[in-house]
Amino acid sequence: MSDQIARPDTNDFLNIFLNDIPMIDTRAPIEFKKGAFPTSVSLPLMTDQERAKVGTCYKKFGQDEAIKLGHQLVKGEVKEERLNKWLQFTEENPQGYLYCWRGGLRSQTVQRWISEAGVDYPRITGGYKAMRTWILGEFERQCRDMPKVVLAGKTGCNKTGLLNSLANSIDLEGLANHFGSAFGKRPDGQPSQLDFENALAVAMLKAEHSDAGKQGLRTVFEDESMLIGRCALPPVFRESLNHSPVVLLETSLEERIEHSFNNYILSKLQDWQAQVGEDDAFTRFSHDLVDSLQRVSKRLGGVRYKQLSEQLDSALQAHKNGDSEQHKSWITALLVDYYDPMYEYQLQKKLDRVVFKGNREEVSAFLAAMR
Asked: Does the predicted TM-score (pTM) go above 0.85?
């Protein structure tokens, strides 16, 4: 057995998150789905059903009987299959760790079985609960102390593209897997709220320890509403952004129309094609756009919604026949009549915090050096 894998258990959470250390999550799938960390993989000791049976046994008969039942449920070919997956992970990720909810019986059992197969693989002491508690503490500190700046601009000016060109930025929409607007749904869905919060906390930790962070540069965040799709910005984080300086990106209406067309029409159709295949993609894409317009129908008002709905239907029919350009008519109307007035209203609340405004090149240069 090599010294390389004979490593001790750890609670060095800073190293784990900064270096994207791979982790085996031995909790049940339902626990993993509720919330995990960006580099963890679900390789459970027990299925959801097995865990439920063991939990019921524990409540009725105590820990010893629950452990016995667990061993009865996970044995033979079932155990062998799971063990092989754990061993494959350890081989592919020799620097990794494993964990359960609190660093207790489940991760200890997996660790012992892996060891019996000839591999020493360390655990996260305290498990998911300890990591979550630690990262939340860091997150709250960063919300309070990290110097931030908010990048604002009208819908369609491609703030995300500018953001991602900067070293000192965090892409909230990327973490939420959503484009941010009512039309921002992505075909492959969004992370759970806890997954989003964990990913944001890790991203802020990395930003703080990056070269830009060490130089005292402000971390740039895009101006977002309370919700990015179904992912909510944590109140303490949102509050910190509400007290941060604002930089405005200014672009022409033509540029915004073109970006919205590329982003919400051409790229989104490609995303649907990748997700469901060519045959079903256009139908799913069409339903996506129609549903998105429906979500803003009340704010548009009956007459305006009817007009835009008819324009969208006409554009979809033309698109189906090979002409996608007609989408630009309803996109233009939506930007001018819906998103722009809403932006101007929200901007009035931020005017006292605006420290700079300019075109893409000017804003990019300003943000790249802002302290």
From this structure: yes
